[in-house]
Amino acid sequence: MTANPFLSPSTLPYGLPDFAKIREEHYRPAFDQGVAEHLAEVEAIVSTSEEPTFENTIAALERSGRTLRRVETVLHTLAGSDATEAIQELEQELTPRSTRHWDSIFLNRALWDRVKRVCTTDPEETRLLERYRLDFVKAGADLDEAAQRRMRELNAELAELGTKFSRDLVRASTESALVTEDVTELDGLDEAWLQAIEDDGKYVLPLLNTTVQPALAQLTDRSTRERLYKLSVERAPKNLEIAVRVATIRAEQAWLLGYPDHAAFKVADQTAKTVDAVEERLGQLVEPARRNVEREAAALAEHAGHDIEPWDWPYYAEQVRKARYDFDENALRPYFELGRVIEDGVLYAATRLYGLTFTERSDLRGYHPDVRTWEVFDDDGTALGLFLLDPYARPTKQGGAWMHNLVDQSFLLDEKPVVVNNLNVTKPASGPTLLTFDEVETAFHEFGHALHGLLSAVRYPRVEGTSVPRDFVEFPSQVNEMWATWPEILSNYAKHHRTGEPVPAELVERLTAAEKFNQGFSTFEYLAAALLDWSWHRLEHGTKVEDPLAFEKRALERVGASHPLVRPRYRTSYFMHVFSNDYSAGYYSYVWSEVLDAESVEWFKANGGLLRENGDRFRQKVLSVGGSVDPMDAVRDFLGREPGMEPLLVRKGLN
After folding, report:
1. What CATH number corresponds to the domain at position 476?
2. For residue range 254-268, what is the model confidence (pLDDT) as tens digits?
3. Residues that are catalytic
4. Would residue 197 count as lying in a domain?
5. Closest CA to 420 of 401, 396, 403
6. Domain-located, residue 137
7. pLDDT at residue 422 is higher than 60
8. Segments forming the whole domain that contains residue 226
């Protein structure tokens, strides 16, 4: 046990986990010891004869459970980014045990009694106390013994189901891959792409997490497009049964806690506050988006010379984009080399806007050879933390892109943030990694989350950086996307990977014009996914769903989000956001946050754009405060007024 790296804080800079020393056999004993330590720390809080104060109760809870935190952070990091069979088995075993442990904390009546009696007048302490009290209430601390027993049972089952859903989906991305030995079926994919997916004489095109696969825009063979599309929308059928059970459990838990459904339970502590507010916002967008879809579909069919099918849409959208705007997205890729995009684009924008500097630390090892690490410094030379980038897709990695912390910022614990960004870029067999513009925007987006973590300046880890309501957390990351096309940033990173020539101005102008095309499709597929998530979580307790695909169809039709050519961005069987991660009844948050984003982008433009004083204002008012203040108060403080819908409607062509 003395050699177990989890049992003491890492000696690496900033507490970066020492991945080189961590072995499979370290997890279980460290988890057991972490649970025992945490329970002892909680018992010490409960058993003291002192009257409950913020320091001896809430701050003590913030200090507790550090060993367990180290184990779970590394385990869940690898489960998402490098899920070997051993890691998947560990996650499946330890996640339910972790859930039972946290139930024992939040359903501890003596602890809850102390938390209720704590008083404070400090603003940050008041905010944290409110969060803790809400955590206890929503966990079921006020329920009677029988209801608490049932809640524990349901939580344990949910933990097992969520892990299984995720594991099955990771497998499905490779098991449902499009496989062919005939390279002519893949006509349209460039040579680098073909080399990247060639495997012993076969070509294996794995599925990314969304319904629409990127290759659909390039493949010229219509039958290949159809095969790929159907593999995508029909993947992981076993997860349908899991999804039904997950939704049913959540409905029962909401009922136990006195809510009409899980959506009402989840939205109560979000910025939206009520289900009516969410439904009104989504409802404002569905019909305008549908009208745009119909116009776009007509344009695609006219160009194709025949009726189109769902698998045709990405291909003909690209063809119409080329014809209408003289724009070929592939013409941009030579200007978007991964390393240059990150260092001369993403990081450079943070230097210009916030005064940050980045020093690569090749001596600090990540959890995979592809991971790169930078040390981050403020403009006065003060060290802020570490930024890790894991850019490439692999069979052991879940789809999509995300940010998470390996270490949370906290003045209480004297810890600086260690932040990870995950992308899912196809790694070329050789040569440079060239990105699509969507992948460039994703890199800027995820680094917006990273900035939220890196620039956090709060005392308590529970309210650090991204520890804000789910329908607010996407706001800073969406704002950061604007710098991808800001002239001074674009000219710094968009250079031809061979010649070093800057991207032609006319190509950028055509990109900007072409970006508004297909907005109906992208908005509608997003709204369909958000409303599908919402429908699953508006189920009342006791409702039985016999046929999940029929439920999905009826749910979309009922809210006007069904269209023969546009499926939801995520269908039920591969909607990991809501059936495995913490976005249940929360996928609406992207558009909710985008309202704030669109307003903030207009604010930046109106106030001079890429100016240090603008970055400092956004940092001070929004990024640094994390969850220590009411998020909408932070937005109003930044904007100087109440945000409205009009900038978003204009952006999406829905006004």
Report:
1. 1.10.1370.40
2. 999 999 999 999 999
3. 446
4. yes
5. 403
6. yes
7. yes
8. 177-233
